């Protein structure tokens, strides 16, 4: 594949111009029993890796209509991440092999070179949200603050009633910062966006996994273009893709802003790739999305918002204990 930034959105996603079906036309038709069970049971089904994706997706869809108990705007569920000295980044010698492994997705060597060199860092203890911020949570922020930062994914700025438990996208990084600051004021807790290093540690664990679940890309563990429904999914319906600390969707669904603007790692080289050329300074994002291939699901992958609809930009919260 050519550089995806030179292709149409569908071509960049590896899709033909004809219709591509990834889900059933009536996703609840074969799972009508889920319409009569408590929300707690629906959560258990949605987060059960032994269930089929179709059934997990159906359970999450019902939760999006009746109310998802995992969503608590003032008390988002968090995971504790202990302090550690962690090894982050990518050894220079690995750039060529990683690029070759993902060349079919249009990956270019400078994009991977941004991950170099590998380095060690002492990361203090912090907390990471189990889920990215959802449409329902972001709606409350908009209602409370009167902000005009409406997500471009909300067509005409209209709230998608059936997608309350899907991640919000696309908003600018300043809106993500404002959300975290608003919630910190409301609750008196130290909510913020995670630093880039915190995000990578939370996704990869102390052992520095390539993906949140291990060393090999497995398409059915994340909502990426390889396996997903070509749309956002309810939070937590890819349970086999959880991070070592229990966070969901760190490899797919929507890309996630961090608190950091791009700069080279210690001892690294400034990379003037597509993002630097078109945007100048830009906020680092991590994690894959439903519109992108699994290369973005790598825990070390550094990227950002290139202003096209195919870039589905969301965020999750961190908290200082």
UniProtKB/TrEMBL annotation:
Highest taxon of the lineage: Bacteria
Residue ranges of every copy of the Sulfatase-modifying factor enzyme-like domain listed in the record: 108-318
Gene3D superfamilies: paralog of FGE (formylglycine-generating enzyme) (3.90.1580.10)
UniProt cross-references to Pfam families, sorted A to Z: FGE-sulfatase
InterPro entries reported in the protein's UniProt record: CTDL_fold, Sulfatase_Mod_Factor_Kinase, SUMF_dom, SUMF_sf
Protein name: SUMF1/EgtB/PvdO family nonheme iron enzyme
Taxonomic source organism: Streptomyces solicavernae
């Amino acid at each position: 594949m050519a550089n995806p930034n030179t292709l149409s959105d569908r071509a960049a996603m590896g899709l033909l111009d004809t219709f591509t079906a990834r889900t059933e036309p009536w996703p609840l038709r074969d799972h009508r029993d889920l319409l009569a069970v408590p929300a707690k049971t629906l959560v258990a089904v949605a987060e059960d890796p032994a269930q089929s994706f179709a059934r997990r997706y159906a359970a999450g869809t019902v939760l999006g209509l009746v109310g998802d108990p995992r969503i608590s705007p003032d008390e988002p569920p968090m995971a504790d991440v202990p302090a550690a000295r962690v090894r982050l980044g990518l050894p220079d010698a690995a750039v060529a092999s990683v690029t070759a492994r993902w060349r079919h997705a249009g990956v270019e060597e400078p994009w991977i070179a941004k991950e170099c060199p590998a380095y060690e860092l002492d990361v203090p203890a912090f907390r990471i949200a189990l889920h990215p911020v959802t449409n329902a949570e972001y709606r409350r922020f908009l209602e409370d603050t009167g902000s005009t930062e409406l997500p471009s994914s909300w067509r005409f700025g209209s709230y998608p009633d059936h997608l309350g438990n899907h991640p919000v996208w696309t908003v600018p990084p300043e809106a993500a910062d404002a959300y975290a600051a608003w919630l910190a004021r409301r609750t008196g807790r130290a909510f913020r966006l995670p630093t880039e290093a915190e995000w990578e540690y939370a996704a990869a664990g102390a052992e520095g996994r390539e993906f949140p679940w291990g060393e090999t890309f497995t398409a059915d563990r994340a909502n990426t273009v390889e396996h997903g429904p070509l749309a956002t999914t309810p939070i937590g319906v890819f349970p086999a893709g959880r991070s070592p600390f229990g966070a969901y969707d760190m490899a797919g669904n929507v890309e996630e802003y961090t608190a950091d603007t791009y700069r080279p790692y210690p001892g690294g080289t400034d990379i003037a790739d597509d993002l630097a050329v078109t945007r100048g300074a830009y906020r680092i994002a991590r994690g894959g999305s439903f519109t992108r291939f699994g290369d973005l699901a790598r825990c070390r992958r550094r990227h950002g918002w290139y202003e096209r609809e195919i870039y589905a930009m969301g965020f999750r919260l961190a908290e200082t204990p």
